[in-house]
Predict the structure.
Amino acid sequence: MISVWDYVISFLVGGIICFLGQILVIRTKITTARILVLFMVIGMVLEVFNVYAPFREFGKAGATVPIIGFGASLARGAIMATKEYGIIGIFTGGLTAASGGIAMAIFASFIFALIFSSKSKRGGH
Amino acid sequence: MDKQKRNENYNIYVESKVPKTKAWPSLFKAFLVGGIICAIGQGFFDLYSYLFPNLAESEVTTCMLMSIIFITCLLTGFGIYDVIGAWGGAGSVIPITGFSNSISSPAIEFKKEGIIYGICVKMFTIAGPVIVCGVVGSIVCGFVALFI
C-alpha cells in the first residue's frame, strides 16, 4: 500500500511546480495574491480540458497540495454537479467541492487569531 | 536637472536598493520547501487511507488538505511559518499552506484592530481575490460543462 515511490513523485511534482512559481517571482516580482490566483486558474483550465485527472493520477499529493489542485477541485465540483443536477449545480458545485478547505482555513485562522498575538513586527505578507 | 533625468536617476537608485533575490539558491529552496510540503501531504493521505478505508479518494484528499491547513494556521500562530516563508519563497506560497497562511497571517496581525474590523475583515485581504476568482471560475466551468 504505502510505497516510497509515491513520496518521491509527490516531492518532485510539488517541487517542480514551486520551482516554476519561484521563476515567476524572480522574473516579474509578482505578489502573493496574484501568484495564488494565477496558479488556481491554471488548475481550472487543466481540469476543464480533462488534463488534470491523469496529472493527479501521476503526481499524487504533489498534484493536489499545490493551489493548482484547489482550482481543479473547484472546477471539477462545478462540472460534476452540473452534469448531475443541471443549472443549480453550476452555482453549488464549486464551493461544495472546496468547502472543507475554505471552512477549515477560516475557522482555524479565527481561533488562532483569538489565541495568538503577532510575534514579528515584519508581518506576514 | 530636468524632471525626466531626475526620474531616471531615482529609478536607478531604487533598483540598487531593492534586495536582489539570488536566482539559483532561491529556486532550489522553493523546490525543496514545496516538495517537502507535498511529501507531508502524501503522508497524511496514506495515514487517512489506512485509518478510513471506506472513504473515497476525493474525501481522503479533503481530509488531508484540511489537516495541513490546520497545521499551517498553528505554525503561523507560533510565527514559524513566517520563517519558512522567508526561506522558501514561492515554495511556501503555492502549496495550499500558502493560501492558509495568507488567511491566518493578517488575521493574527490585525487582531489589535478588533474582532470584526481587525480579524474578520483583514482575513481576506489576500485570500479574497483567490476565493472570488475561484467561485467565478467554477461557475464559468459549470456553464462550459452545461453546453458540452
In short: Helices of chain A lie at 4-28, 32-48, 52-59, 61-64, 67-85, 87-115.
